């Protein structure tokens, strides 16, 4: 339990065991702890490494990371035993878009040259404490 007048920082650490993610979250309002566990997967379906894309279409396979010319729909498959609240899309660590409804997609239409890291983070709905 954590008191509302607790002055220190609280660190949340997810534990991954056997394909499950378990996260303990202190709830300061009612002094309880909510435990979320279950099957949870997040995959970027598009773009895929090894393809050349032209205006959002895979044109051909290549022997390298993805090459993209023109805008690109970044598509994410997020699946969980619990309800998914949202999926956030990042280029490197800069938030670019948030999607709250499946299918989770974002159209990347910014001018960009060189290598880029695309990251997607899914968030689960937190159940109301009992």
Describe the structure.
By secondary structure, this protein is mostly beta strands. It folds into two domains: about 1-40, no CATH class; about 40-125, Immunoglobulins (Immunoglobulin-like, Sandwich). Helix content is about 0%, strand content about 55%. It has strands at about 15, 20-25, 30-35, 40-45, 50-55, 55-60, 65-70, 70-80, 85-90, 95-100, 105-110, 120-125. The strands form four sheets. A three-stranded antiparallel β-sheet has the order 1-2-3, with no helix packed on it. A three-stranded antiparallel β-sheet has the order 4-8-11, with no helix packed on it. It has a three-stranded mixed β-sheet with strand order 6-5-7, with no helix packed on it. The model is unreliable at about 1-5 and about 25-35 (pLDDT under 50).
The gyration radius over C-alpha positions equals 19 Å
Mean pLDDT: 78
Termini separation: 15 Å
The secondary-structure class comes to mainly beta
CATH superfamily of the largest domain: Immunoglobulins
CATH class membership of the largest domain: Mainly Beta
Provide the spatial order of strands within the biggest beta sheet: 1-2-3
